[in-house]
Write a structure and sequence with these properties.
- It comes from Fusarium torulosum.
- This is Cupin type-2 domain-containing protein.
- The chain contains no helices and 14 strands.
- The chain is mainly β.
- It has a single domain, classed as Jelly Rolls.
- Strand 8 and strand 9 form a beta hairpin.
């Protein structure tokens, strides 16, 4: 198991049992298709500060961000184009394999490669893989303000089933 696109991921989560810590989960996760890429949510917390739980907080609910925190891995297939979207979140994206074009609403574009870190601040954006090789990004999402400098930065272009429940 590794960081390369298409390879399974291993999730190891710990929990407190009395005064001792213990392993809660040690399992392999597989990515599922949806939203123009293959993805899996590793862990999610719907509150801030984080609620420490003794059960798996990742349900079958396909939410792509939350009012707490979320970590997910996304594989972008070779020669694929995404679509413009925005979530009301501060996203940290760590590119672990391949390269992607990040296109923004103002028409600006930049290429990010393995080892690069993207800080996405609730901007309308699109991910495009213009290469013949897959790319993998680990995203950590945190909730953000919904208005910046008087501009509405709420969800755009995100199917309703992926939005957090109110």
């Amino acid at each position: 198991m590794g960081l390369d696109a298409g390879t399974p991921l291993r999730r190891v989560a710990t929990h407190h049992k009395g005064e001792n810590s213990s392993i809660l989960f040690d399992q392999e996760l597989t990515l599922s298709t949806g939203f123009g890429s293959n993805a899996v949510t590793i862990w999610r917390n719907d509150k801030y500060p984080a609620e420490l739980v003794d059960k798996d907080p990742v349900s079958t609910d396909p939410v792509i961000y939350t009012q707490g925190s979320l970590i997910r891995v996304v594989d972008f297939p070779a020669n694929s184009s995404g679509h413009n979207h925005r979530t009301a979140s501060l996203d940290y994206g760590i590119v672990t394999q391949g390269e992607l074009e990040m296109a923004l609403a103002d028409g600006s574009k930049t290429i990010v490669r393995a080892g690069d870190v993207v800080i996405q601040q609730a901007t309308l954006h699109q991910w495009n893989n213009l290469t013949d090789n897959p790319a993998r990004v680990i995203f950590v999402l945190l909730p953000s303000e919904k208005t910046v400098a008087g501009v509405d930065v709420t969800e755009t272009g995100v199917p309703e089933k992926y939005l957090p429940k109110a």
